[in-house]
Amino acid sequence: MKLDVRPLTPDRWTDLETIFKARGCSVARGCWCMFYRRRGSQPALPGVRRAEQNRRELQALVDEGTSPGLMGYRDGVPIGWISLGPREQYLKLARSPVMKPVDEKPVWSIVCFVVPAAHRGQGVAAALLAGAIAWAKKRDIRLLEAYPVDKQGTLREDSLWFGKASMFERAGFSEVARRKKTRPVVRKRLRGR
């Protein structure tokens, strides 16, 4: 599958909402890709549901000029999301027993994929990953890192947000650490040493 992959910008915010509000994306609607961007838990604002607070915080990042990920379009329709950015923007990674830093090298982390149910099983996540690699190369990013699931058989939907290890392997990523049997840390060098 070939997708047109574009960064999330303020003028594309409604496209992200289309993806997250689609059938099969209830976990994404609750998180809005904010869970790993925080350190510890954060109390909800009075009278505001956690999901709405997360949505507002992600939109504020975008409005401030941060592009927290990329969206994939097929024939102009948004059908997938990949969250990526410098590892230091994902505060929770620093303390995660599974995803903590391997070393001090500057990496961009790929944290999650969101693909609505209607578009699953068609190679959308792999196309998003290919688009993210191409996007990163154009921006002179040296190293991409991800935290996929390496497990046989049927996977729970909530673990698929990280992507499958085999998909990353096919895209040229190599394992650099494994702190839990089913969760490798993988990297792809894009340029330099």
What is the CATH architecture annotation?
3-Layer(aba) Sandwich
Largest sheet: 7 strands, mixed
Low-confidence stretches: none
Strand order within the widest beta sheet: 1-2-3-4-5-7-6
Q: Give the overall form.
A: globular
The portion of residues forming beta strands comes to 15-25%
Helix content, binned percent: 25-40%
Q: How many distinct helices?
A: 6
CATH class: Alpha Beta
Q: What's the total count of β strands?
A: 7
How far do the termini sit from each other?
31 Å
Class computed from helices, strands and strand pairing:
alpha+beta
- How many distinct folded domains? 1
What do the pLDDT scores average to?
Answer: 92
CATH superfamily membership: Gcn5-related N-acetyltransferase (GNAT)
Your description of this structure?
The chain is built from six helices and seven strands, in the order βαααβββαβααββ. With 193 residues, it is α+β, with helices and mostly antiparallel strands. Strands 1-2-3-4-5-7-6 form a seven-stranded mixed β-sheet, with helices on both faces. A hairpin with a 2-residue loop joins strand 2 and strand 3. The longest helix has 15 residues, at 124-138.
